């Protein structure tokens, strides 16, 4: 792939610039300005809206009045998540089948796989908005959509995952501690996460930025003894990292 990620980023930057100049534009107007499809515009707008750089409305988007509202903290978190996703993606091998949960960081790893041939299975509806390589096959589990996270849960999702296996899984969480393991605040997602871990035959990877380390929330997704790698950043609490390592988890801290 020739500078694919760089070209995508330039395109998104151009969309932000156009909206700053014209205040608001329709999807069709943006497509004509950039010489790209309306589907690509919608996908880019979805990403930019989540980042707080534009504000979507039906059929188009408008500028964010003060681009500085997208704070330095948010920029730093986006940078951290991208670095974690890149590292997680480096474990994916050619022709792997991958389980991905509803984590935004786990999902981002799919856009960092270059042109590898792979199959990704996920209950994250937002995968439809992701820039991913043409050699990848994406499978949605099916199930009941839970908003605003756009997670597929329930009996259909459980049945789907229970009938499939993966070579590797990359999952995120809301909290991870040596004492309580991997946790999430949503019961229905915890059930899917457990199944993802159980049905993975190879590496089991957790991606979690520093805010999640040492934090426990309501429902257990998995025990540390079931996990091979925790990928986090250099801001993570050193004492908790040491305790997690003592549980047999290999911890990779990305310098930030």
From TrEMBL:
Domain of life: Bacteria
Domain HTH deoR-type: 8-63
Presence of keyword 4Fe-4S: no
Sorted UniProt keywords: DNA-binding, Transcription, Transcription regulation
Xref: InterPro entries: ArsR-like_HTH, Carb_Metab_HTH_regulators, DeoR-like_C, DeoR_HTH, NagB/RpiA_transferase-like, Tscrpt_reg_HTH_DeoR_CS, WH-like_DNA-bd_sf, WH_DNA-bd_sf
PROSITE patterns, per database record: HTH_DEOR_1, HTH_DEOR_2
A Pfam family the protein falls into: DeoRC
Sample GO molecular function, one term: DNA binding
UniProt entry tagged with the keyword Transcription: yes
Protein's name in the database: DeoR/GlpR transcriptional regulator
């Amino acid at each position: 792939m020739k500078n694919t990620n760089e070209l995508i980023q330039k395109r998104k930057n151009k969309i932000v610039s156009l909206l700053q100049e014209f205040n608001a534009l329709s999807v069709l107007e943006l497509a004509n300005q950039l010489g790209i499809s309306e589907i690509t515009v919608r996908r880019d707008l979805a990403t930019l809206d989540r980042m707080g750089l534009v504000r979507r409305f039906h059929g188009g988007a408008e500028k964010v009045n003060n681009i500085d509202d997208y704070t330095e903290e948010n920029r730093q978190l986006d940078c951290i998540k991208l670095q974690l996703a890149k590292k997680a993606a480096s474990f994916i091998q050619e022709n792997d089948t991958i389980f991905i949960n509803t984590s935004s960081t786990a999902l981002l790893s799919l856009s960092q796989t270059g042109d590898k041939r792979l199959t990704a299975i996920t209950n994250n509806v937002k995968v439809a908005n992701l820039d991913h390589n043409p050699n990848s096959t994406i499978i949605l589990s099916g199930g009941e959509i839970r908003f605003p996270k756009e997670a597929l849960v329930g009996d259909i999702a459980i049945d789907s995952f229970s009938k499939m296996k993966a070579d590797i899984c990359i999952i995120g969480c809301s909290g991870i501690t040596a004492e309580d393991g991997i946790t999430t605040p949503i019961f229905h997602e915890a059930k899917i996460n457990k199944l993802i871990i159980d049905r993975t035959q190879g590496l089991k990877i957790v991606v979690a930025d520093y805010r999640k380390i040492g934090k426990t929330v309501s429902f257990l997704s998995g025990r540390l003894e079931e996990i091979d790698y925790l990928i986090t950043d250099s801001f993570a609490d050193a004492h908790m990292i040491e305790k997690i390592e003592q549980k047999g988890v290999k911890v990779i801290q990305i310098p930030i």
